Amino acid sequence: MHKTLKQGGTFVVEPRRLSKASAELRTRGFGEITIPPSTETAEKQASRCTDCGVPFCQNACPLQNNIPDWLRLSAENEAREAWRVASLTSTMPEICGRICPQDRLCEGGCTLNQSGWDAVTIGSVEAWLGDQAFANGWVEPIRPQAERGESVGIVGAGPAGLAAADRLRSEGYQVTVYDRHDRAGGLLIYGIPGFKLEKHVVQRRVDRLIDGGVQFVLGCEVGKDVTLTELRDRHDVVLLAMGVYQPRVLSAPGRGPDSTVAALSYLTHQNRRDLGDAEQDGWHEARGKRVVVIGGGDTAMDCVRTAVRQGAASVTCLYRRDRENMPGSAREVVNAEEEGVVFEWLGAPKALLSQGDRVTGVRAARMQLTEAAPGERRDIVPVPGADFDIPADIVIEALGFSPEPFAAHEPNLTLRDDGTIKVGAVSFATSLPGVFAAGDAVRGASLVVWAVREGQDAAAEIDRYLKTRTEEVAA
C-alpha cells in the first residue's frame, strides 16, 4: 500500500513508483527510463485488475479504452487478443501507454488506487502489448476492403493527424498529410524527449501508414508553401490538425530577444541530436551551466530532465503555485526530483538579471496561496519582502503554447476568442465547407491522448460527410 498524506484538509495519494532504471543510470542518456516488463510480470500485473463492475479506469480514459477487457485477456495469456481489443479504440496504444499521465487518468481512477492500494500499472501493460504486437507481427497492415475515390488532405503530422490518417485510410480514402517539419510525428518526434518516448516507437507507426498508402508531404507549411485554398481545390476534404506551437512568453523586466530559450526549441534541438542530425549553430545545450526552467507543466518537466541529461551544473524549476496545484504529472515531478532537479514552489519570476548581454539569474517573488472562494481555485499573492534570486546561465520559458495566427492565411475561417478554431458541437466541421479541425488546434494545448481521440472522431465525421455530403457547419 502506498502512503496517504493529509495536507490542508484533503487527502493526497503519493504517486506510485514504476519499475524504472535508477536515477544515476538513466541520466546518462536519453533512452526510456521504464524497464519493460517480462511476459510473466505483465500478466501478473494485469491479473491485479479487480473487474470491479464499474470501470472507473475506462471512464477516466479520453479514448474510453476497454481496459478491463484487455487486462483480463493479458492475464489469461491471450496477449494477441488483448492487443486486438486495445486497437479497437486507439490507433496508438503503445504510444499512449508510454506518455499518458496515467496517474491523472486511468490509474488515478483505478478502484485499487481509490482504496489506498497501488493501482494496476495500466500504462505499462498497454505499452507492453504494443511492443509484443510489433515484435510478433500482430500489427495488421492497412489494407482497405475497397478503395474510395475521394481524397482527404490533413494539415499536421502530429498525433491528431496521424490518428485521423489511420482511420481514413482504413476506410479506403486517399490520404495526404502535410507537415512543416522534415519528419512526421509532430510533438511525438520533436517535442517529447526520448527518455519518455523513443523515436523508433513513433516511426514504426508512420511506416505503417506509408505502407498502407498514406502520402506525406514534409517540409510544407500551410500559409507559406501552400495555401488552404489550394488544398481545398486539391482535396475533397481538408482536416486541420496542426496543433499549437506559438510559445507564451515571459513578461518581466530584463527579458530581451536572446535572454531566454523557448522550451520547444530547446527540446527539438536535443531530439534532433538523438535522431542523428548534424549539430547546427544555435542549438541549445546546458552542459556545465546553471539552468532555470519557468513553468510547472509537463513541458517544463521535459526541459528540466533534459537539462540534467545534458550535464547541467544545476537545474531549478520555478513555479508560482505549490506542488499540489501544478498542472504537470505528479509522476514526472518525482522522476525529476530523483534525477536532481530542485523545485522552487510558490515562486513567480519578477525580472531577469544580467551582466552585459549575458543572463546571470532570475529574481523571483515568493508567493502564498489565498483562501479559495466557494467553487473557485485558490489565488496566489506575493509575500512582501520575500523576493529571492536564482543564479542562471540559461533561462528556459515553459509557460505553455497558444494557437498560431492561422486566420492571417484564411480570414474566412472562424476562430474563438483564444485563437483556436471554432467547430461544430459534435461534427468537427469549421466555418468553411469541407474543412474540419481537430486536436490542439481546436482544444488548445492538451494531452496527446485527447489529440488521438479527436483525430479518430474527426475521421469518423469526415467519413460520414463524404458518404452523405451533409455536415453541421460551425456558426
Automatic annotation (TrEMBL):
Q: Which molecular-function annotations from GO does this UniProt entry contain?
A: 4 iron, 4 sulfur cluster binding; glutamate synthase (NADH) activity; glutamate synthase (NADPH) activity; metal ion binding
InterPro entries on file: DPD_II, FAD/NAD-bd_sf, FAD/NAD-binding_dom, GltD-like, Helical_ferredxn
**Which stretches are transmembrane?**
none
Enzyme Commission number, as recorded: 1.4.1.13, 1.4.1.14
Q: List, for all copies, the residue spans of the domain called FAD/NAD(P)-binding.
A: 152-455
Which Gene3D superfamilies has this protein been placed in?
Answer: Alpha-helical ferredoxin, FAD/NAD(P)-binding domain
Broad EC category: oxidoreductase
Q: Which UniProt keywords apply?
A: 4Fe-4S, Iron, Iron-sulfur, Metal-binding, Oxidoreductase
* NCBIfam families (alphabetical): gltD_gamma_fam (TIGR01318)
The name on file for this protein is Glutamate synthase (NADPH/NADH) small chain
Record organism: Brevundimonas aurantiaca
